[in-house]
Specification:
alpha/beta, 7-stranded mixed beta sheet, 6-stranded parallel beta sheet, Rossmann fold, 13 strands, 2 domains, binds uridine-5'-diphosphate, single chain
C-alpha cells in the first residue's frame, strides 16, 4: 500500500470567526449529500512545496465535513524524481523535452504505484504531474478521477504536454489555478478554475506578535533593529533567488543596513534543490547580511511565520509561479509584498493597490526602497492585501469549491450553491 500521511485533526467550527457565516452554512449544505463518501488524494511528497502545505489543511477539513478522506504518497526514487522535475520544468516552459529512457522511467513508476493503490474509493484526487499517469492502469475504475494541476501551464513545452495528454483525457475533471493554464487540446475533461488557499489557523499563518517574531528571528542571527527583506521558497530557478540577491544589493546601496533572508526548505522530491542551494550560497559570496536558511537550520512553520511577520518587505521574485502561497501568506500577515508579475501571483496582488508587481531585479529593488522609505504608506497597501486574501484565499473557500465539484460529479443538484470561483470551461 502507498504510504498514508497522518494529517492530524482540524475542526471546521474553528474557522467560523474567520469565514463568513454564509460560507460556513454553504459548506454544511454541500457536505450533507457527501457524508461517508471516500476520497483518496495522491501526491509525490508530504514535505516541501505548496501541495503538501494545502493538503495538511484541506484533508482534515474534508474529514471533518464528513467525507472519509485520506492522503497517500506515491513511491519514487531519485531516477523518478529527476524525470518528474524535468516534466515540471518542461510544463513551466523549459525547452528540454523527455528522452526515451525518461519516458520509460516515468511509465514504470506509474505502473508500480498503480499496483499499490486500492481502487475502492468514490473519488481519486491526483495532484500535479508525478502521479498523473496512474489512471492509465484503472480503465474500469468506478471512482471519479480528478486531476489537480498546481503549476504554471501557460507556456508549456508542447512535446511534454502532448506526452501527458492521453492520461489527462481519462480524468473526469481537471482543476487549474487560472483559465490561462487550461491546455489548448481536444478531448479534455471539464476544467474547473479555482485558486488554492492558506490555512489562517496553521502555525505558519496564525497570529504572531511582533515581539515573538523578533524573538524568533533574533535566534537565527538577524539584527532585529535593522530592516529585513525575506523570500521564502524552495531553491528552484523559477523562484529566482539569485535575482533576489541582485535586488538586495541594489537596495543596500541606498539602505546599507538592510539584511536579506532566503528561507527555503528542501522538498524530498526535488533533486535539483541542492544544486541550486549551493549556487545561491556561492552567489551570496559570504555577505554576512545575507542569511540562507532551511529546514537543515531548524526552520519550521513557526520560524517561516516569524520571518514573514518580522520583515519590512516580503519578496517572491518568481519567473514562473503556479499560484504562490508564499505571496498569500505575507499578504495575510499585512506585510508589504513585492512579487514577480507572473502566473497566479497576478491574481493575488493588484499592483499599486495591494502590493507591488515587478518584472526585474531593478524594479524589485525600487519597490523595496519605496517600502523602506515610507513604511506607513506601504502598510496601507498591505492592509488592503490582507482583506483581499480574507475574501478569496482562505481554506474554507477552497473546501467549498471541492464540495461543489464532488457534488457535480455525482450529479447532485448544486443550484443555489455559490460557485463564483468555479467555472466549467469544458
Ligand atoms: N515553504 C516552507 N519553507 C520553505 C519553503 C517553502 O515552509 O523553506 C512553504 C511555503 O511557506 C509555502 C509552500 O512551501 O506554503 C510553497 O508553496 P508555493 O505555492 O509558494 O510554491 P511551490 O513550492 O508549491 O512551488
Amino acid at each position: 500500500m502507498l504510504q498514508l500521511v497522518n494529517v492530524g485533526h482540524k475542526a471546521l467550527a474553528d474557522y467560523a470567526t474567520i469565514a463568513t457565516r454564509g460560507l460556513m452554512e454553504e459548506i454544511r449544505r454541500l457536505a450533507a449529500p457527501l457524508e461517508g463518501r471516500r476520497v483518496v488524494h495522491l501526491s509525490a511528497t508530504a514535505f516541501g512545496g505548496g501541495v503538501a502545505e494545502i493538503n495538511y489543511t484541506l484533508i482534515p477539513l474534508m474529514q471533518d465535513a464528513g467525507l472519509e478522506t485520506e492522503w497517500r504518497i506515491i513511491r519514487g526514487a531519485e531516477e523518478f524524481y529527476n524525470v518528474t522535475k524535468a516534466i515540471h520544468n518542461a510544463l513551466q516552459g523549459n525547452p528540454q523535452g523527455l528522452d526515451d529512457e525518461q519516458r520509460e522511467i516515468y511509465k514504470r513508476y506509474q505502473a508500480l504505484n498503480a499496483q499499490e493503490l486500492e481502487d475502492d474509493c468514490d473519488f481519486v484526487v491526483v495532484h500535479d504531474p508525478q502521479p498523473l499517469g496512474m489512471i492509465d492502469h484503472f480503465p474500469d475504475s468506478r471512482a471519479q478521477w480528478v486531476w489537480r494541476g498546481h503549476i504554471d501551464f501557460s507556456a508549456p513545452n508542447q512535446s511534454v504536454l502532448d506526452y501527458l495528454l492521453p492520461s489527462i483525457r481519462r480524468y473526469d475533471a481537471a482543476i487549474f489555478h487560472m483559465r490561462e493554464y487550461v491546455p489548448r487540446a481536444e478531448g479534455l475533461p471539464p476544467a474547473y478554475i479555482w485558486p488554492p488557499a492558506i490555512d489562517p489557523l496553521a502555525p505558519k499563518n496564525m497570529a504572531l506578535s511582533a515581539e515573538d517574531a523578533a524573538y524568533i528571528v533574533d535566534q537565527f542571527g538577524i539584527h532585529v533593529e535593522r530592516p529585513l527583506l525575506t523570500q521564502v521558497s524552495r531553491f528552484d530557478p523559477w523562484k529566482d533567488p539569485l535575482g533576489v540577491i541582485d535586488s538586495y544589493r541594489l537596495v543596500k546601496q541606498r539602505f546599507p543596513d538592510v539584511q536579506l533572508a532566503l528561507v527555503g526548505s528542501m522538498a524530498h522530491d526535488d533533486p535539483e534543490g541542492w544544486e541550486y542551494y549551493n549556487q545561491t550560497v556561492a552567489y551570496a559570496d559570504g555577505d554576512p547580511d545575507i542569511y540562507i536558511l532551511s529546514n537543515l537550520n531548524n526552520i519550521g512553520s513557526v520560524e517561516v511565520n516569524a520571518f514573514q511577520v518580522h520583515s519590512a518587505a516580503v519578496l517572491q521574485k518568481s519567473i514562473r509561479e503556479g499560484f504562490g502561497l508564499t505571496v498569500t501568506a505575507p499578504l495575510w500577515k499585512t506585510r508589504p509584498t513585492v512579487a514577480g508579475r507572473v502566473g497566479g501571483i497576478v491574481t493575488q496582488i493588484q499592483d499599486g493597490a495591494t502590493g507591488w508587481l515587478v518584472d526585474s531585479p531593478e524594479e524589485c529593488a525600487e519597490a523595496c526602497i519605496e517600502i523602506l522609505r515610507d513604511p506607513r504608506e506601504a502598510r496601507q497597501r498591505a492592509l488592503r492585501g490582507k482583506e483581499y486574501v480574507r475574501r478569496h484565499f482562505l481554506t474554507p473557500r477552497l473546501l467549498r469549491d471541492w464540495l461543489v465539484l464532488f457534488n457535480r460529479l455525482l450529479g447532485n443538484d448544486t443550484s443555489g450553491a455559490e460557485v463564483a470561483v468555479v467555472s466549467a470551461v469544458s
